[in-house]
Amino acid sequence: MAGAKTLRFPYDPKPYSYDGEALRRSWNRLHKGDCEPYPDAAAVQQAWRAFHRGDFTDAIARGAKGSPLGSLAASKAAAVAATYLEEDDRRALKLLEVAAKRAEEATRKLPDHANSWYLLAFALGRYAQRISIVKALAEGIGGKVRHALDRALELEPKHADAHIALGLYHAEIIDKVGALAGRLTYGADAGKSVKHFEQALKLNPDSAIAHMEFANGLLMLRGDAKKQQAVELYRKAAACKPADAMEHLDVEQAKAELE
Fold it and tell me: Would the pTM count as exceeding 0.85?
């Protein structure tokens, strides 16, 4: 895989190695944000172990050759690696394209599985951020993201990560096209954005990414008027105790924002 060397977690993975029964014991904490059920298949468990310890290349390889449930681990690993570790835009976009296609296939095979829809939105959303939100809206990606997130929350209202993503959806559109055009064309609403972020924090109060994206959303919606609240949210994000490699990367990013 092009760029594979960049897809490994750049910190100590030992605290996040969930061997044997450790994965089952820690599963509820690890997946509090996305409500993914514990998998029965050993191959899918191995894909998620690779994901949680930050070996994203291995998680992609293991997940992609398995069942639709395994493909979800692959899609999430690719999207996280493209977001945090891949600096080359071309390679990052390729990772996200493949992740989105894989997640879209999962929605066809697992149409009532909330996380299939969330991961489709997650991969498309990160892709949109790479190419620019305005360009993504022109290509119709915004509508696909909104549909996927609405479906995820219809299936699982407690999906905290989907609430984060939907809060960000509203905020990014308003930031790029304005409140009036955003509301009339895309149904974007600042009040709904804040409510989704607040619900995500209520569901998963220990989530660094929930605090951090809420801060980002407030700055998009209100700018300097919400700067102090955003800084406080970044501080809370930086103080979160990560349970896996992805959360560790979230905490490091929050610390970088504070600096």
Answer: yes
